[in-house]
Design brief:
Blueprint: H1 4-43, H2 48-156
Helix pairs in contact: 1-2
Length: 157
């Protein structure tokens, strides 16, 4: 699901976090090892069985430490994977919203063009109506003059 770039970023972050955890635990282990080494000086004088037991304990400690570091890295990787899925979902949602916004803008432009055309048509209709009104008024004025002339002519007979 992740692009190569995103996968690399997630992997680098997980590795960095695991390294930091490992470094912390290694520091603790080295500190414990230093204590153990000081105690080992005294134990070297003890029988070989005690030294063997000490080595077993150190090996068990190292193994437990490595398991803790590994589990921590796994948990970090799982968390990062969940976060990446969430980011991808949000990115898809954002992309969908951008498409819807672009569609709405296109519809708005079409509506604006239609409104502009309707306004132009209404202005033309208004001009035509004014011109027709003037023509009717002119014809009405001529008809009134003609009626007067006719009335005078009839009155003169």
């Amino acid at each position: 699901d992740l692009s190569e770039g995103e996968f690399r970023k997630v992997a680098k972050a997980a590795i960095k976090e695991a390294r930091e955890e490992f470094d912390k635990k290694i520091g603790l282990a080295l500190e414990q090892q230093g204590i153990a080494e000081r105690e080992a000086v005294h134990l070297r004088r003890e029988p070989a069985a005690l030294r063997s037991e000490m080595l077993k304990l150190e090996a068990a400690h190292d193994k437990a430490l490595a398991e803790q570091v590994t589990e921590s890295a796994r948990q970090s990787a799982r968390q990062l994977a969940r976060e990446c899925k969430e980011i991808k979902a949000l990115t898809r949602e954002r992309d969908d919203l951008e498409v819807k916004f672009a569609d709405a803008c296109a519809k708005l432009l079409v509506a604006k063009d239609k409104a502009s055309a309707a306004t132009t048509a209404a202005e033309a209709a208004t001009r035509d109506a004014k011109q027709a009104t003037r023509q009717l008024a002119s014809e009405a004025g001529r008809a009134t003059l003609a009626e007067r002339k006719l009335g005078r002519a009839e009155a003169g007979r």
